[in-house]
TrEMBL record:
Gene3D superfamilies per the UniProt record, alphabetical: HAD superfamily/HAD-like
Highest taxon listed in the record's lineage: Bacteria
Classification via Pfam families: Hydrolase_6, Hydrolase_like
Provenance organism: Serinibacter arcticus
Cellular-component GO terms for this entry: cytoplasm
Segments traversing the membrane: none
Name used for this protein in its record: HAD family hydrolase
One Gene Ontology molecular-function label: phosphatase activity
Amino acid sequence: MSSYLKASATPLVEAHDAVLLDLDGVVYRGALAVEHAADAIAAAAAAGSQPVYVTNNAGRPPQVVADQLTGLGIPTDPAHVMTSSLAAAAMLAVDLPRGSTVLCVGGPGLAQAMEAQGFRVVTSADERPDAVAQGYGPEVGWAQLTEAAYAVGQGARYVATNLDATLPTERGMAVGNGSLVAAVVNATGVRPTSSGKPEAGIFHEAAGLVGSTTPIVVGDRLDTDLAGARAAGMPGLHVLTGVSQSYDLLTALPHERPDLLAIDLRGLLQTHPEVVRDGDVWRSGTAGARVVDADLVLLRDGVPVAIDEATTITLDELRAACCAAWAAADAGTPAVLVRRALDVVEG
């Protein structure tokens, strides 16, 4: 069996008692559900694999997330939603007793998470808060950031819900929580502990919501979802409906590589073939790939095809190509790839 990608002779939902799902790019895109997502999630739940939604969005309370999903035809409830705000509150609760004061910088979901954990939320550094929790909120500005800087400067513990520098929007990449955190770091010299993806804690908290012992993580971003799965010691399924595409997979760093690949969430309902090494060739089903003189080459019916000449590749070809590219990179001779996303088709 490949030491890079895992195989599964049974559908993934039969092997895992919970599916920890990223939202944007996996379950929905903007105001619309990703194609096949609703049916796949319903089938997973029917098979006994409970869906849990894991998001770095700290501003929205779980009820708001649950209402959005339900409105998209994916019925859920707040008890199946894990936000980075909830993870931050759980992190603080390890060291701070109930009733401790927390200065919250961010949207309403952050303050609600802290209050649910038994903390008292304050808005001014003059109240000498025990901790500062910072998460994204469109209303965050100079005044809140300055209160945070004062409190951190006074010795308050500093936690950030995530350190994502940017936030994807319909107009492009907006300022993310990590960029706002950078202002406080620049003013104080103190770096916060992060509770969101790719940290392991948010995944363990998510699994704990449903008492899962064999969860699987599903995501579309290698640097958050899949890196987080590896950090948490959980298998990670990468779907091609969001941010990271074929080029990103082929050049992925070891700590960001997924264990399994799928076109979309239907991959949860499918078996996954073994990828085997045959000399310098990696094979998945009838597909093959190898790296020759820094060129990644596909083998189609035994005929070599340079990967930068292909317009579309099958999922099995991508599996084989990833293993070949990763093995070459780990051996110190990475393939030279054209920076574009190859279209991956079923088959």
